[in-house]
Design goal:
Order of helices and strands of chain A: HHHEHHEHEHEHEHEEEEEHHEHEEEH
Radius of gyration of chain A: 24 Å
Number of helices of chain A: 13
Oligomer: heterodimer
CATH superfamily of chain B: RNA polymerase II/Efflux pump adaptor protein, barrel-sandwich hybrid domain
Distance between the termini of chain B: 20 Å
Shape of chain B: globular
Helix content of chain B: 10-25%
Strand order of the largest sheet of chain A: 2-8-7-6-5-3-4
CATH class of the largest domain in chain A: Alpha Beta
CATH architecture of the largest domain in chain A: 3-Layer(aba) Sandwich
CATH topology of the largest domain in chain A: Aspartate Aminotransferase, domain 2
Helix content of chain A: 25-40%
Number of strands of chain B: 9
CATH class of chain B: Mainly Beta
Number of domains of chain A: 2
Number of helices of chain B: 4
Largest interface: A-B, 6 and 9 residues
Chain lengths: 447, 128
């Protein structure tokens, strides 16, 4: 195989094929001012630059210094100092699976252990080496389901799935011949099983449900499993708060075919919104369609336990345009962070994280419901997050509380303009009783 | 080495014609190039395809390759032993390692395929 970059002749043939006269035409939609040389101030000394950046950093609120109740897909769980310290080891410092993978047995072993954690938590057989984050993990799960049910065009998505995840799916589907059918949540904030089943037909390749859903409510996995299996589609479980798996039944037990979502809660700090940690797991029967990298366990020539990348033959660097997916790497460093964290927590620790998060959210839920004027639109079972309806518009209320050091919730108007007074409140093991009481007290005072 | 009674494609499949039945497999050269075969993805009985159309994939430890049908027809039977134990294709590509049996939809296409001698020449020229 020749391996040459495009020649001038190749380039002009490609331009001709797409009807562009010059290469620059492809960038015509980019505003010219963006392409100009950036106007930067003159260089600063180290002292000056530290002062400048320190000033910028001080303007941002920190979860450590506020009463923090934000969630909506990103959660403030505790990560031990041990995990951080281990990540500083220089051997680990790459986000990639290595290109000569079997030389790096330690890296492969860690990924294998991460995969094992995901399998145990989801109740499924095979998990990949991680994906970028929850939204693209859902996309990959749906594309995988599409490959398994060749020729079908429709994905049924519960509207309880995180709006940003659904937006990402829509972006991908816009350029594929695939369609989204959305099933709205009912007046109780949960997805109606009958509506889900009614939306799925012989054109459907996947039925996807999120639990806890975006409104915080626990959904019934078996509703998606039943709706999908009836029409020969794949059922997809979406999990945006992976700590919930410390308490709630694994989707695999309910007959779910593919589980995907965000594992940031399992040992990855919130950073400033990323990097995060997507995951995807499925049943053995479908393992050849799983996207991304996969580490397997084997024996070396001397019969010792060893690890290897497996099913790489279906990946982009070998299969080119016929690859299973265009995901050809993984979120290596974050998967490692999660592996260290989970190994430290263990089964009991994870259950404790989940139990405390749930108990604190329940305490807060009951207390906010008693504040005059405040209402919980959906009283159903939740894990660590719930929706609140204030007597006044949520955005200015939340901004005011933020000024007092309380990040009380995520305003829902950003996603649902029809609910300007609603916001999402999340609790984790990090929240103290004092913080929660302060939040409740201030809600009563400022409304 | 390449059996005389078979017809060959440039994509390294072979077909044996018995009346209106065609048996399809991959050549010895193909299995050697692929290396240890670990998985076969084959169509179900009843599937209809045209000559040169992709009808499955063969996966070895180093590559996944498409299988292209030498002739048009309808799948009658898939070699279940080969699916269960793909190593058979390495061991006996022209015999027990056959892949699918099809009912020919025309007998006009066979003439376009190579005979054993032409195929041997073709492999040699491809290696240059």
């Amino acid at each position: 195989m020749k391996f040459l970059p495009a020649s001038d002749a190749d380039r002009s043939a490609m331009l001709q094929a797409i009807g562009a006269a010059r290469l620059e035409d492809l960038f015509a939609s980019i505003p010219p001012e963006v392409l100009e040389e950036p106007k930067l101030p003159p260089p600063l000394s180290e002292i000056e630059i530290r002062r400048f950046l320190g000033g910028l950093s001080a303007r941002a609120a920190s979860a450590r210094e506020t009463a923090f109740f934000l969630g909506a897909g990103l959660y403030h769980h505790y990560v031990s100092a041990i995990a951080d310290q281990m990540l500083y080891r220089s051997e680990w410092l790459t986000a990639y699976t290595p290109y000569q993978p079997e030389v790096s047995q330690g890296t492969l072993q860690s990924i294998f252990e991460f995969q094992t954690h995901i399998c145990l938590l989801t109740g499924l057989d095979v998990a990949n080496a991680s994906l970028y984050e929850g939204a693209s993990a859902l996309v990959e799960a749906l594309l995988m389901a599409d490959r398994l049910a060749r020729g079908r065009r429709r994905a049924v998505l519960s509207a309880g799935i995180h709006p940003e995840y659904r937006e990402t799916v829509a972006t991908y589907f816009a350029n594929l011949d695939l369609e989204i059918v959305e099933v709205p949540v009912g007046s109780d904030g949960r997805t109606d099983a009958a509506a889900l089943a009614a939306a799925a037909d012989e054109e459907t390749f996947a039925v996807a449900l999120q639990s806890p859903n975006f409104h915080g409510l626990v959904e019934d996995w078996s509703a998606a499993a039943r709706a999908a299996s009836r029409c020969g589609a794949q059922s997809v479980a979406v999990i945006a708060e992976a700590a919930s798996l410390g308490l709630l039944a694994p989707p695999g037990l309910a007959g779910i075919d593919i589980a995907c979502g965000e594992a940031q809660s399992l040992g990855v700090p919130m950073h400033n919104g990323g990097p995060l940690l997507g995951f995807l797991a499925c049943r053995t029967a479908h393992q050849r369609q799983i996207p991304g990298r996969l580490v397997g366990e084997t024996r070396d020539a001397e019969g010792r336990r060893a690890f290897c990348l497996t099913l790489s033959t279906r990946e982009q660097h070998i299969r080119r345009e016929k690859a299973t997916s265009n995901i050809c790497t993984n979120q290596g460093l974050m998967a490692l962070a999660s592996n260290i964290h989970m190994s430290l927590l263990g089964r009991k620790g994870l259950r404790e994280v989940a139990t405390q998060s749930h108990a604190k959210a329940e305490y807060l839920k009951a207390a906010i419901a008693r504040v005059p004027g405040y209402r919980l639109p959906y009283p159903g079972p939740s894990f660590n997050e719930f929706e609140v309806e204030a007597p006044v518009p949520a955005a200015p209320l939340l901004a005011r509380l933020a000024g007092e050091g309380i990040l009380a919730g995520v305003p829902l108007a950003r996603y649902f303009p029809q609910w300007p007074n609603r916001f999402l409140v999340a609790a984790t093991e990090m929240n103290t009783r004092e913080e929660m009481d302060r939040l409740v007290g201030r809600l009563g005072a400022v409304s | 080495m390449n059996p005389e009674n078979l017809h060959y494609t440039q994509s390294h499949e072979w077909v044996r014609i018995d009346g209106d039945i065609g048996t399809i497999g991959i050549t010895d050269h193909a299995q050697k190039e692929l290396g240890e075969i670990v998985y076969l993805e084959l169509p179900e009985a009843g599937h209809v395809f045209n000559a040169d159309e992709e009808f499955g994939t063969v996966e070895s430890v180093k590559a996944v390759s498409e299988l292209f049908s030498p002739i048009s027809g309808e799948v009658l039977e898939v070699n279940k032993s080969a699916v269960a134990e793909p190593g058979i294709v390495n061991d006996d590509p022209f015999g027990d390692g056959w892949l699918v049996r099809i009912k020919l939809s025309t007998d006009e296409e066979v003439g376009k395929l190579m005979n054993a001698e032409q195929y041997a020449e073709y492999v040699k020229s491809e290696e240059k």
